[in-house]
Amino acid sequence: MPHYDLVIVGTGSGNSILDPRFADWNTAIVEKGTFGGTCLNVGCIPTKMFVHAANVAATPATSSKFGVDEELTGVRWRDVRDRIFGRIDPIAAGGREYRVQHEDNQNVTVYEGEGRFTGHKELQVTYSDGRPPETITADKFVLAAGGRPVVPDIPGLAETGYHTSDTVMRLDELPSSIVILGGGYIAAEFAHVFASFGVNVTVVNRSGALLRSEDDDVSARFTELASQRFDVRLDRKTVRARKTASGVALDLEGPEGAETVEADVLLVATGRTPNSDLLDVAATGVTTGERGHVVVDEYQQTVVDGIYALGDISSVFELKHVANHEQRVVQHNLLHPDERIEADHRFVPHAVFTSPQVASVGLTEREARERGVSYVTSHQDYAGIAYGWAMEDTTGFAKLLADPATGQLLGAHIIGPQASSVIQPLIQAMSFGLDAKSMARGQYWIHPAMPELVENALLNLPLD
């Protein structure tokens, strides 16, 4: 039974832990799938590359209002797909090759199989090629095994056939129609991608709004705009899934009774779940929360001494930039056990790369009310700034929440062009304690650029 100083399970952000400072550690990496994790292979990077192509494809649909007549003559799906994965797949393969073959990793053993705890700090690795399982032990473990798509328990779904975000980007042909089950960020991004490529998109959601976890004003605006672009079915219960002669059908129950939607392809985008159950972390004494996330303290350590966790397996945020931050914390704490540092999750931003983009950091107004936090708000439309005029944007806006006593920002929410970039100064202000008045008046704002949206939203806050 091989014993190691450190075993890392997962090769997403966890793979970045090992650097030359670990050269004298006897280490092992366990990976059941493709090197690089969710973000590189099936998440952030390929989806955003598809989104950019979709943005290009969507341009002709709105160009005429600028006096420019354009026409989309076609989308070469396989060319789009192959450009993206032609870049990503070699990176994943290169990451594996580096760990397996490079002389820098002579102290690293790679186990390409599925790990599962069978006892205290005892991990069994099962191989898909028929080799007998191996059991390894270690003084320290890092659990960085990520998550996977949730597949709801719907009668007939397995027999009907479906895609998730893990598989839909590898389609051989662009369908003429698609049904997307779900109303969160994955559903919103893929609805934009496929609709921009000329696919008829139907979105089926069990709740009454899309992007429901966003601020209520942002969610309502996005739902309104999405309903103008896609066939959006809200407050629907999916009763069953069925195969049809041309594809799939979902039988639904909604406010007006029974109905059916049909399409060539079904995409299930109902969320993600951490892989803690696949690892059977309870067998080594590690605890999990209500949604299955591994419980960690401020140092990213579990309740078991020497077992750390990071990324989607332990983080409710399930964001790559959070996983990268936690990786650096875990790396430091492994190397400096007597001088450990804490993870900083105070102001974690996120963005939805749909159309229009959505970005957020801090409290929503709903959360502020629920927590009894005193706040004031402001609202600034893109239509009220000069660059908004240039873009003819009449739907986007920024919404801020601030402490009326101190002027400190409590939350920021933007829906509109380049929201993921426009929000960054607000993240910076919150992270470094810059109050709204000082931020608005203490610096120049380039005119007529999009950050004037932020400047005006700050000035609109009713602060003394």
TrEMBL record:
Residue ranges of every copy of the Pyridine nucleotide-disulphide oxidoreductase dimerisation domain listed in the record: 348-457
This protein's UniProt keywords: Disulfide bond, FAD, Flavoprotein, NAD, NADP, Nucleotide-binding, Oxidoreductase, Redox-active center
Similarity comment: Belongs to the class-I pyridine nucleotide-disulfide oxidoreductase family.
Domain FAD/NAD(P)-binding: 4-324
Entry EC no(s): 1.8.1.7
Record: active site: 447
Cofactor(s), by name: FAD
Record's keyword annotation contains Transferase: no
Cofactor: binding comment: Binds 1 FAD per subunit.
Residues involved in FAD binding: 48, 115, 312
Name listed for the protein in its UniProt record: Mycothione reductase
GO molecular function, one term: NAD(P)H dehydrogenase (quinone) activity
Binding locations of NAD(+): 182-189, 271
Keyword NAD: yes
Disulfides per UniProt: 39-44
